[in-house]
Amino acid sequence: MDLGALLLGVGRFLLSTTLILLLTVPTAFVVIQMELKIIAGSQLRYGPNRIGPWGMFQSTIHGFKVLAKEDHIPDQADRATFTLAPWMVYMAAAMSMLVIPFAPGAIAADFNIGIVYFFAVLGLSVVGLLIAGWASYNKYSLLGGLRSAAQMVSYEIPLTLSVVGAVVLAGTLNFRELIEWQRAHGWMLLWQPVGLGIFYIASLAEINRTPFDMVEADSELVAGPFTEYSGMRFGFFFFAEYLALFIMSGVMISLFFGGWLAPWPFPAELGGFLGTVYGVFWFFIKTYIFVAVAVLLRATLVRVRVDQLMGAAWKVLLPLAMINLLVTAAAVVVFNL
Amino acid sequence: MTSDVKIPDPLELERAEEARLRSAAGLAPAARTGGEYSGFESVGLPDRPPETEREQELYTLDEGEMLVNMGPQHPSTHGVMRLVVKVRGEVVIDIDPVLGYLHRGIEKLCENATYTTVMTYVDPMDYLASMHNEHAPAIAFEKLFGIKAPKRAEYIRALVVELNRVFSHSLMMGFLALDMGGITPILYSFINRDEVVDLLSAISGQRMLFNFFRVGGVNFDANDEFFSRLGTWRANVVKTIDMSERVITDNEVFRARTIGMGVLSGKDAIALGVSGPNLRASGVPFDVRKAHPYSIYPELEFEVITHAAGDSNARYLQRIAEIKQSIHLIDQIVDKMPHGPVQAQVPGIIRPKPGRAYGAVESPRGLYSVYAVSDGGPNPYRFRMRDPSFISLQAIPKLMPGHLIADTMAVMASFDPVMGGVDK
Amino acid sequence: MRIPGFGILKGLRQTGRNYWAPKVTLQYPESRPTMPDRWRGRLDLIYDPFGEHKCEVCFQCAQVCPVEAIDMSGFDSEGRRIRYGMPEIYDERRDPNAFRRAGLAAEPMRNAARWDEAIDKPWLHGLIDGFGGRSEALVAIFSAVQERYGYLPERALHQVSDEMTIHWAQVFGAAGLGGFRLLPAEGHLVTVCDCAACRFAGGDELLTALSAELGIAPGDATDDGAWSLETSSEVAAGAIAPAIRIDTMVYGPLTVAQARHLIDERKRGDARASSPTRAVAGARKS
Amino acid sequence: MAEQRSSLSPQIRILPGGEQRLLAGISGGVDPDSLAAARKHRAYTGLQRAVEKLGPEGTVDEIAGASLRGRGGGGYPAADKWRAARATPGERKVVVANLIGADPTALGDRALAEGDPHLLLEGALIAAFATGASEAILAVRRDWTLGIERLRRAIAEAEAAHLAGYLVLGTDFSCVVSVWEGSGALVAGEETALIAALAGDRGMPVIRPPYPTERGFGGAPTTVQNGETLAHAAWILRHGAKKFTSVGSATGRGTKLVSIYGKVAQSGLAEVALGTPLSAVLALAGGGTGTTKAVFVGGAGGGALAAHELEKPYDFDALHSAGAGIGLGQVLVTDDSTCMVDTARFFLDYSAREACGKAVPCRIGTKRLVETLDRILAATPRPDDFNLLRELSRKMTDTALCHLEARAPGPMLSTLARFADEYRAHAERGVCLAGAHHGAELQPLLAPLPGIESAAS
User: Fold this and answer.
1) Where in chain C is the domain with CATH 3.40.30.10?
2) Does residue D108 sit within a domain?
3) Structural domain harbouring D209
């Protein structure tokens, strides 16, 4: 292969990763701000409304406040892993963003196995949480870490299986091709309603959102694995959580809600840069809708107990996913879609 | 076991184990960076041999067990309480509530105060039921002095007391949800509580520590402002209650977390001395307002509400039902309220004849009673307060074993203890 | 029969609707809650029907606060600004009663240097020891100190407070109520008795004449600091009314002319004070 | 008279005439510095009689038989107070002789302290014996240096002669007598305030009950008696109750030391039998100069009597019913050139200046009353100022913490009742019926004058 193509690829890679990393922090800020405002509204409060117009910079200020705070490490903690954990969690979230299809031509790394990569990388965050819980030398952290391990292990499987149906239908593991398939055949939502339901519940559990947030159950374990963390180390966990919420919503709409596609037929002649902008617009619209729904859920629901959670995972979601996959596969074979 | 058992310190065990492994692997013993402090020393292991069998049982750890110390600084210990929880994994083996972090010696303060100034001291005891805290001493002292409060005073007392019950119960709804991770209902509860508290400050002049009751009457008569505010509150209280109810009562997750949790049978409840809503939620129809009528309750019509199940959900539903009942009572009181004075003639410094008196009221947390002994001096010779949440808290160690850590706080919140009253 | 998920949807509907419902929060600094009339928690002072502060700015709260946490400023009933604080700003407060009750000097301080006058610590220490450090002896100690210094230096009061472990506020209050001077008098101190006996025996004329003679008002001092004039009922003139006291000597009964004569005598530098009995024998009111 | 004056401070002039009981020793020229001279005048025979014959109960009964009432202004029966103090159980009991000279114009106590210290000392010892006290404190105004010195010497001599201190007269009755130099203030005349000042605290009254006889100085039962009362007690024990009750009115037995000043020929101290008509009292001072217009009895806590009331008996209850009070025996005579409003304002201003500041109605009420009178004098009254005066006075009296506060409005109220036309003339027309020119001296004496020019004019 010639040097030009190589250089081009390298440059493209550097550019995209830089853009992604630059994108993560503002995204987290936006999601946090949404959480602040929506929860406040549903609690009959105004929420932050002092900093910036309509208080829209509150979360940013929180971010800088976290930067300014003291960074404390318990003297019994294992320094190496203690410092490693937040970085791992954050990088897991950031790396999984590489394959998010924002728009036609706006995918950082357009693997042909993007979906597999995504679930593989996102699963890394559990390792970070586990390490954090162990390294903190604190019983609350330990319990929280173990909870996260159990929870994620039990939810990876239904989560992945619920997607396999869609993959089988589309016959691809590439996000872009999956979305193209949806443009042709209509949104996956219509083909895989059960898969969508399983995916949504499982994804909430995967990213420790209420009602499945027993990893940092503040009324039981003070803050779970993050109890002993302070300053920017805690900030990394914090950002990673909200980043994961954004990513999950993004992946969900890519898989089931037609990704960057507009609700009406996507104008094919709209290509190039304009198409990219148009797709990005629709992508963010859909994603933030689901972020808002997740936030509203948090404002409404109480926490599920950990044994109920795993019971539901193994006894309900997994069989459902299996059946769903079976039916889908059968349908594909019979009607050779 | 003999009594001079060596309590194994987890830290020591771990260090010994590490040293053994290292020596086995031919490594040099590890240099610990940590100072004297270590996270495990916060579990509350006493640095002395156990004194009672109970201590020995609690602080002896079997394989795979550990002690988790919840509180006194913990997000959801309703004030400052400490729970030493012995867990195996997530399962609670044993619980030992450690009390006294909020002890202010209120009984002793009251014994050094004159009868009229006792009211100011009992206020901050059970700070969610200050009116009830003042009601019981008022009853007891009036028995002691042989005076009677005027009719209107009694009606105003009953009115403010029921208002107090409303906001106390509605706060319980919020805290129960909060301890299960629901962050919204507590704010709805506080909206309701704030309106009631404004009401009470309109009649008493204070928002939290009212100091409203007087021996032989009440401090102020109810004025127009109070009644107008009462009207507006009455107009939308049901709406506010329903709002928080709609969020949690039928919620499947909430039901899954409460139904069958911390089941307290009626017999056990009576044996423990649990009273009030917690007792009635176990199916025992005991209400001081009916069993030992005081104030004007004989003139009001209401029946004792009970729930059979005796679990957290029953206790929660019991509270809601009692809120509605209190609102019903408030309507009756306002209708029947007579005119007249609100304060009997009482000398400034009272020296009752030597004797003893007992006054009991139905506080939001149960049977709250006061026992006062007079030796003829200007201040009570002995002043004893029976606080219901102290007793209902004794049910926690009995109920919890077998449940998960996640449920300890939830069940405790369903008993609605107030540490200020527990520790006095 | 419950449909699973129905309860959750009900809750979602409630929270979602509340997002658009009117909010209950008060934007505090801009909008204040309306407190009931009976509310006792308010900390600002109420005005009486004539629009005057009910607070007399008497500084009792400030002086009985053992840790001296209270500082206040306000307007007394004559509308003069009053401020409690360090001696350097005493002259902002002119209400004599407020001064005395606060245990502070009743005149504006002219030469701040005198405030820092070094006192004989060992002597005072011995004095306090002599009284066994009993708080009953406060007044006796004060009079001894005043006898020596002509007033109660603040440093001396501080030492008394420290050595006898009595609250500064109590020491100051006891000193303030006792008719002691908390500020040094300048030059000759002329005290005109204003007890009832003197007043109705012509004390007013005496005071007017003396203030005209010295060119100062009561409670004031001449610019050269040679003379101070004040009134007090402590002279206790009794049968020799009207009487005045120059430094420590009591003269009476006096006519205006005799009072002028006494002042002139001093002014001429004749420091030999004539004994009060001679003054009494010599002077008869016509 | 000459040697008397030499033995007393020049401020005190003993008027001739009147009764001669307490003043007998003084005007008899007894040397106050020698115990022997005093014993010639039967000093300590009363104590001897009490200790050796009567015993505590008997002593109290003797005082009760003489129906001695407190001379400090309250007129409270001394025997009841002593009984109360005696009935209260306690290891340590204290007797306090109030010689603080609350009103500098009242000369009685000072004269006794300087002229007959042994009489006071004997009275204090008798009270201590009767109440079972082991401690007697003579609280003396600190600028009565002569009296303090003489009291100290008297105590020393008496202790040397086993008349005070330990094992008095060989019996097991012991009483340690000490002199406490206090600072004179009007409020110090109030017993609880005096006790507070004794303890080194700010002299402020405390709320009662508990009364000092139950719980006073240092928590011990304390009997606070005016010096003159104690002197009377000593005199009673010396000469017997019968002789004491021989003079006086039905409600007030015995005599009272009266200091007369103002527009009289010769001001000074006299002793009169209670119940004597006021005109006779004035006669002791040679009568008023000019036509007497009103007589202010009882100083700042008393009230005014118009000229036509001068036949009223000088007595506790008679004066009280007339809206005045006996006070410490101050009698101020005013003639027709005196403005009543101005005088009332003077007394109120005195009360306001001397207010300890503890009780709000007193601290602020007196101030407001003075301001209101100033408005009236300046002929710029507010519409309901007269009602304000009455209302405020009533409130002050109702909410009083001590009797000084309760009686502070007395002069104003009594003059307002008797000389309303003067008030009205001032308020409405701005003229003074007394013709007194109201210039600079209307200003409060402690406040700066408006300016030298006006003062000079």
Assistant:
1) 188-282
2) yes
3) 31-244
Going along chain B from its start, the domains and CATH numbers come out as: 10-98 (no CATH), 106-423 (1.10.645.10)
Of D346, D356, D445, the CB nearest to C177: D356
D13 contacts C139? CB cut-off 8 A: no
Decide if D276 is inside a domain.
no
Q: What is the Cα–Cα distance from C276 to C245, expressed in whole angstroms? A: 10
Cβ of D364 within 8 Å of Cβ of C56? The answer is yes
At residue A179, the pLDDT reads 85
What the block records as the tokens of C15 is 């929270």
Name the residue in chain B with its Cα closest to that of C15.
B247
Alpha carbon of D101: minimum distance to chain C alpha carbons (Å): 9
| pLDDT at residue D382, rounded to an integer | 82
- Interface size B-C, in CB pairs within 8 Å, comes to 60
Give every CB contact of residue C140 below 8 A, 6+ residues apart in sequence: C131, D142, D180, D181
Tokens of residue D351, six digits: 């009360």
Considering the segment(s) C188-282 as one domain, its CATH architecture is 3-Layer(aba) Sandwich (3.40)
Highest mean pLDDT of the ranges B27-36, C93-102, C257-266: C257-266
* Of residues C136, C231, C236, nearest to D446 (C-beta): C231
Identify the chains in contact with D, defined as 3+ C-beta pairs within 8 A. Answer: C
C-alpha distance from residue C256 to each of A331, B77, B323, C238, C244 (Å): 129, 83, 85, 18, 11
With cut-offs at 50, 70 and 90, classify the pLDDT of residue B393.
confident
End-to-end Cα separation, chain D, in angstroms = 41
Of these ranges, A107-111, B163-167, D355-359, the one predicted with the greatest mean pLDDT is: B163-167
Residue C55 has pLDDT above 70, yes or no: no
Q: What is the mean pLDDT of the segment spanning D165-188?
A: 87
Specify the pLDDT at position A1.
58
Instruction: Examine the domain organization and report whether D68 and D196 are in the same domain.
Output: yes
Q: Is B15 on the interface with A (CB under 8 A)?
A: no
pLDDT band at D3 (very low <50, low <70, confident <90, very high): very low
Helix or strand or coil: residue C74?
A: strand
Residue C50's pLDDT is: 61
Residue D125: pLDDT over 90: yes
Chain A stretch 198-237, residues whose beta carbon is closer than 8 A to a beta carbon of chain C = none
Q: Which of D244, D261, D296 is the last residue of a domain?
A: D244
Confidence of residue D176 (pLDDT cuts 50, 70, 90): very high
Which CATH number do you get for residue D361? 1.20.1440.230
C12/A297 Cβ within 8 A: yes
Is residue D103 in a domain? yes
With H, G, I as helix, E, B as strand and everything else as coil, classify residue C246. Answer: strand
Residue C271: CB atoms within 10 A of its CB come to: 8
Tokens of D37: 């001279």
pTM: 0.60
Interface of D with C in 93-122 (CB under 8 A): 101, 103-105, 107, 110
In the prediction, which pLDDT does C110 show?
Answer: 41
Query: What pLDDT, on a 0 to 100 scale, did the predictor assign at position A266?
Result: 59
Domain of residue D150, CATH code = 3.40.50.11540
CA of residue C229 relative to chain centroid, distance: 18
Nearest to B209, CA basis, from B164, B177, B242, B256: B164
Q: How far is it, in rounded angstroms, from Cα C7 to Cα D317?
A: 85
pLDDT by residue (tens digit) across D244-280? 998 888 888 889 999 998 888 888 899 999 989 999 9
Rg (CA), chain A: 20
Number of domains forming the structure of chain D: 2
Amino acid at position D346, single letter:
F
Cis amide linkage into residue D209, ω under 30° from 0: yes
Residue A35's Cα: distance from chain center in Å?
15
Q: Is the peptide bond before D32 cis (omega within 30 degrees of 0)?
A: no
Q: For residue D83, tell me if it sits in a domain.
A: yes
What pLDDT, on the 0 to 100 scale, is given for residue D82?
93
